[in-house]
Each structure stands twice: as structure tokens, then as C-alpha cells.
Amino acid sequence: MGAHLTKVHAPIAMKSRPRPGLAAEIRFVVETKHIIDFAVNGMPTVLATPWLIWFMEHTAREAMLPHLEPTESTVGILVDIEHLAPTPLGHAVKCRAQVLSSDGSQFLFKLEAFDELEKIANGLHKLNVIDKARFAKRVASKTKPE
Predict the structure, then answer these.
(1) Is the distance from CB of 73 to CB of 19 less than 8 angstroms?
(2) pLDDT-derived band of residue 145, with 50, 70 and 90 as boundaries?
(3) Of 117, 61, 77, residue with least CA distance to 93
(4) How far is CA 91 from CA 35, 52, 118, 136, in A?
(5) Pairing of strands 92-103, 23-29
(6) What is the band of 4 on the pLDDT scale with cuts at 50, 70, 90?
(7) Which CATH number fits domain 23-140: 1.10.275.10, 3.40.50.2000, 3.10.129.10, 1.10.340.30?
(8) Which of 15, 41, 59, 118 could form a disulfide with 26 if both were Cys (CB 3.0 to 4.6 A apart)?
(9) How far is residue 131 from each of residues 134, 135, 141, measured CA to CA in Å?
């Protein structure tokens, strides 16, 4: 039988814990840098899924920021997004993130996005609150000295 390893994490401090139901919104306009890179030969210029996910994740992060100590930050650990409809270049998008639950340093969010006409995406996002110095040490341990 193999050894079973258990990671021990120091508790996070946080100024306060976001409660279920807490929500945040981010609005943006689809710019050229946000469109698919294969909009050629009749393919319309529309919002690329990776950019949509980026904005949706950042909406959840915005909900968390007022609750963090200066020594803390967040990292995404799960993204499950369904991109439901295209959004043309120049259209406005509203992303909404709502806390569903928390477990220790992990927070689960319901995510939704709407363009000017309809819901364009929904899904879930989980993020982890981390200590920046501890995280930096972990990253440094993976970096080879030059």
C-alpha cells in the first residue's frame, strides 16, 4: 500500500466571509481583442469563449476582494461554463457572479452573462483564497535557477 499524503494548510484570515447570495457584476463592451481569431471566410466577429470566461471569473474575484486581507488573493480552481449564444463585436455584456457556498478557503459561484439581447452564458466557478507569500514560495519552488 502506498503512503497517503495529506496537505495541511494554514487557515486563511480574511476580513470577512462572503455569505451565500452575495453578488457582483462587471460590464464590458466586446472589442477587437475579445473576438475569435478565426473570424474569416464568412465567420462573423463574435466574442471568444476564453475572453467570456476571463470576464466571468474576474466578476467572482471582484465579489471576493473586499473580504480579503492585503496578504491574500484568489486563484481559480474550477470553471464550468456553457457558452449559449454569440455576441457581436461592439455589443455590451454584463457578467454576474453570486456566491452559492463556501468550504474553508474555497468559494463556489453561480456565473451568468448577458448581452444586449439575451443570456449568453451560465455555469459555475470555484475559487480558492490563498496567502500570497505562501503561494509565491510554491511557485518559486517550481522555478529553476538560471
Answers:
(1) no
(2) confident
(3) 117
(4) 11, 13, 12, 38
(5) antiparallel
(6) very low
(7) 3.10.129.10
(8) 59
(9) 5, 6, 16
DSSP 47-86: B-HHHHHHHHHHHHHHHHGGGS-TTEEEEEEEEEEEE-S-
Which residues neighbour 8 within 8 Å (Cβ) at sequence distance 6 or greater?
A: none
C-alpha cell at position 29 = 463592451
- Predicted structure pTM score: 0.88
Per-domain boundaries in the chain: 23-140
* Contact indicator for 129, 64 with CB cutoff of 8 Å: yes
How far apart CA 69 and CA 31 sit, in angstroms, is 33
Bridge partners, 94 (sequence order):
27, 114
Question: For residues 124 and 80, what is the distance between their CA atoms, to the nearest angstrom?
Answer: 5
Q: Is residue 118 classed as helix, strand or coil in its secondary structure?
A: coil
Region of 23 please: left (phi>0), alpha (psi -120 to 50) or beta: beta
Q: What is the pLDDT of residues 91-114, one digit of tens each?
A: 999 999 999 999 999 999 999 999
